[in-house]
Every structure is written in C-alpha cells, then in structure tokens.
Amino acid sequence: MDSHNLDEFRRRWQEELAQAQAVRKRRRPEAAERRPRRPEVFPGRGEQASGYLALAQGLLEGAGRPPAALVTRTERQDAASRSRSPPARGGAGGGEQLVDQLIRDLNEMDDVPFFDIQLPYELAINIFQYLDRKDLGRCAQVSKTWKVIAEDEVLWYRLCQQEGHLRESSISDYSCWKLIFRECRAKEHMLRTNWKTRKGAVSELEHIPDAVLCDVHSHDGVVIAGYTSGDVRVWDTRTWDYVAPFLDSEYDGDEDEPGMQPYASFVRINSSLAVAAYEDGVLNIWDLRTGKYPIHRFEHDARIQALALSPDDATIATASAFDVVMLHPNEKGHLQIAAEFEVQKLVDYLEIVPDTGRYPVAVATAGDLVYLLKADDSARTLHYVYGQPVTCLDVSANQAAFGVKSLGWVHEGNKILVYSLEAERCLSKLGNALGDFTCVNLRDSPPHLMVSGNMDRRVRIHDLRSDKIALSLSAHQLGVSAVQMDDWKIVSGGEEGLVSVWDYRMNQKLWEVHSRHPVRHISFNSHSLITANVPYERVVRNSDLDGFATHRRHRGLIHAYEFAVDQLTFQSAVPVCRSSCDPMAGHNYDLALAFPYDSV
C-alpha cells in the first residue's frame, strides 16, 4: 500500500470513526435486520460499521490477507491480541497495524450492552414483565424488534391486572390490551375528576308513604332499606332502575290494621341474600335470585340486638338477649344453625370475619367484652378491661379493630385497639382522643391504613405500621357517624346530617351535601356513592296536620350518586322525570300526574 492510499484511508477512517462515536454517545443505535421468522431480541452490529468493513476488506486484499478474516468475532479478537505485539517495519506492517486497530474498534462497537446477544422471545418477555408502562413505552422506541416485544399482549394484560382493571377478564377477551389499558386509565382519570368536581347524577331513592326509615345497607350498588311499617325494599342502582321490588315478609297480622307489623330494625344484603330482623325477634332471609318471598324464617325469643351478614357467602349471625346464633348453609345449600354461643352481657356490635373457609368466624362486643366466636370452638374472650366499654367495631380477614372508652380516675384517653385474630393478641393501640370513637373502617381501607371517626368532630387516618396518626381532619360539628376511605379520598358523615368528601393527600375538602338527619350509612366505589340519613325518632308524623314536604323531611333519605354520568349534579334529572309516561297517583291528591316530556 503506497503512502497516498494509506493517508486517504486514515482520513476516511477517522471521519467515520468520529461519526460512529457521536452516534454511540447519543445512544441511538440503528435497528438491525430482523430474522425471517422470529425477531432478534437484541440486534447485532448496526450499519455504522458497513463503511469500516468495506475499507477493511480492501485493505486486507491489498495486504495479502483473506477477506474471511472479518467473518467471526473470534478471529477479530485473535487479530487484536496479535496487534499488541510490536509492529513490523515497513509499509505493509503499518497497513496491518491499522487494520488491527480497526478490528479493535469494531469489537468496541459490538460491546454495547444487550446489543450483541440474541435471546429467545419467551425469555425476553420474562425480562420485560418487570417493567412498568413508562419503561415499556421507552423500550418500544429503541428499535422495531423491541417495539414488538414491548407491545406484547401478555405484558399489557398483566399491567391491567396489577392496576385493578378488568380483573375477571381473561387474556383472550380482547385483541389489543394496550388500547384497553389506555381506555381504563382514561376512564379512571375521568371518574376521579368527576368525584373532585361533583360532576355526575344524584337521585333520591323513592320512599314508602307513612313510614320512617329504620336501617339501610348496601353491597356493590344494591341497596336495601327497612321501615317502621315493616316493609323491606331493594334498589339496584347499577341499572338506574328505581322501581324497586318489595320483599314480602309473610306477616300473619291483620292487614286492615296499619302499623301493627313490627319495625324492620336491621337489614343486610350481599350479592345473593337479603336479610331483615324485626322488633319481635323474627328473622327473614330472601334469595335475590329466586323471588320476593323469604326462603328461611327464624324466630328468636327476644328482640334481635345485632345482625351481621358475610359479604362473601351466606353466613348470617344474630344476637338476641345473651345468645349469638350463626347460620350457615349445609352441603345441600339449606341454611342451618352452625353454632350457638352464650355471652355474659347484651351484644352491642356483631361482625362476620370474611374469607374464613368452611367454619365461619364472628366477632361480637358486649359492653367491655370482645368475643371471638368460631363455629368449631366455644366463645373465647379476645379483650376485656373492666369499665372500658367498646364504642365501635370493624373486622378484616385477619384483624379486628374496635374503639375503647376510657373511664375511671386515671383517664388514659380513648383509643382504638387492633387485634390479630390468628394470634389473638393486641397489635396496636392507636389514638389518644378525648371523645369517643364512634366509627372505624378497617375492611375497606388501603393496606396498612385505617380511618376512624370521633365525637370530637375529627376524622383520623391511622398508620398501622408506625402506630401513629397520619392525618387528622376537623370534619363535623356534632361528631362523625360514618366514614370510609380509599387510596386518595375520604367520605365522612356527621350527626348533623352533613356528607363531606375529602382529598386527604391535599388535606382539602372537595364538596359537601347536607340533609336533615344523621348519616348512618356510607358506601362508595370508584364510580358511585350511597348515603343514608336515618332519623333518631321512629314516630310517624300525621301528614294531614303537617304539610307534605314537612312530613317527607321526617322520614329519612337515601341518595345515590353516579359519577360516571357526564353531567352536573344540580342539572341531573330527578327520579320522577326518568319514569315512564304512565299516569301515577300523587300522595294525598285526587289527580293523576303525567309527564309527556319524559321521552324527550
């Protein structure tokens, strides 16, 4: 090789080497060629080396070396190792030294991480499954091959499941899970915005004439209510159909004498059963899938003081006098008495522990005693301190939380105790408030958190890991009566009838709604909210003496909010305007009401 060709090669080589180094610094390697059948997970050398290979091939031919020397990486490494020895003198030796330096530079280009390896597609999926949505989006911009892997349906299906979207769906239900994931996140953002701005629809569930609301419960959008007239009514707010069926109690009294049927003092509902307890000790159980007539009737000797229904199965627990009875279906599906327990005092609160398997478990409080009731064992005392009554109770799958009122000469402050149901020991003592804890929500709270309400007007978020109060909000003037939280908001109800929604991350109240009676029930999910204002008095006021509106205010209210509807709350149609065009008789009026504009 003459000196002119050598100088020309050195100049072109330095220019292309500088360009290749600039590309490497920007970390934007060009996509390599894909395999015919299966894409290469990590491509090999880019096209930057094509100029080097052409020049090196010409040099090797001029230097008397075969072009096959560039075929494998091993031979280039051998050449690079030989180049560490002192170079030979002469023009040919200088050319071979430049070729060896070129080979070392090519080896450095191949040493870019993960770009010199070819992996099976399944192994690449296992690696990419540890990335979140942002990292998958970045990987999809690297090359065409990485884009195919980053948009695999398995990865986006797992992301949907991890973030709680479409948990009951299988991977074959949709063809593009990345698009489904994007739509779910957009819907979640829209719902959160509607919650913050109170954008949606609100409806008041239709009341029963000449009856006062006694108790309300809901499960997954299905609401049940019991009245002083003995009527039990059910609404399904998921379909916005408020023509609710009456559940027949099969009462044997005289139908011509109104008010003779005992009050429906407690009502509970889950996905399959509805339960109502009456003042005379009768317990009626309905199957929501079969009809409005009860499938089981159980009679107690005394008034039922507490009622609990499992949210997962058909387990029912009742407390009457000093006895606690647990009903559980047998192998044929018929309800039967699974266990009976005798306690020392009258039961105040009763809850069924979820996910207990074959043998149901319940927790009951009676004065200053807390009992752990297992169907396959006798009643066991979980907590007892003389003179410190329990003021509220809630349970989760493995824990129980209850408020304790401190009395005596040494006032230690009212606390919430958290017990492990497996170890049957106290895990945490939370709070040190002057007022009584009136409500606590452990089951619906995020992991390691718990929310409580107190008579000192405050709503508190407790951190179960550090046993400290994470946040305290001054919420209601007459005390907190109901509370629930999720991963970003709190909904609380007060004795004065105020329902407040808080963004506890910002320590800010978003909006509030006021009604006449205390808030006794709050239940919400991502898109709906159910609230119930239950009166203190259960005396029916005479509608002839008072006005119709006045009489209505004394009966209690149930409101259903739907935030998936894209309209303002105060602009939403009232329930009567969503009814059909059929005439219906008005209360205490001798005329028919018709709405021809309903279909507009």
UniProtKB/TrEMBL annotation:
> InterPro entries, alphabetically?
F-box-like_dom_sf, F-box_dom, WD40/YVTN_repeat-like_dom_sf, WD40_repeat_dom_sf, WD40_rpt, WDR55/POC1
**Cellular localisation:** Cytoplasm, Perinuclear region; Golgi apparatus
The highest taxon in the source lineage is Eukaryota
Quote the SMART domains the UniProt record gives: FBOX, WD40
Mind listing the UniProt keywords for this protein, alphabetically? Acetylation, Cytoplasm, Golgi apparatus, Phosphoprotein, Repeat, WD repeat
Q: Where are the WD repeats?
A: 473-512
Q: Write down the PROSITE patterns for this protein, in alphabetical order.
A: FBOX (PS50181), WD_REPEATS_2 (PS50082)
Q: In which pathway does it act?
A: Protein modification; protein ubiquitination
Q: What is this protein called?
A: F-box/WD repeat-containing protein 8
Ranges where the F-box domain occurs: 113-159
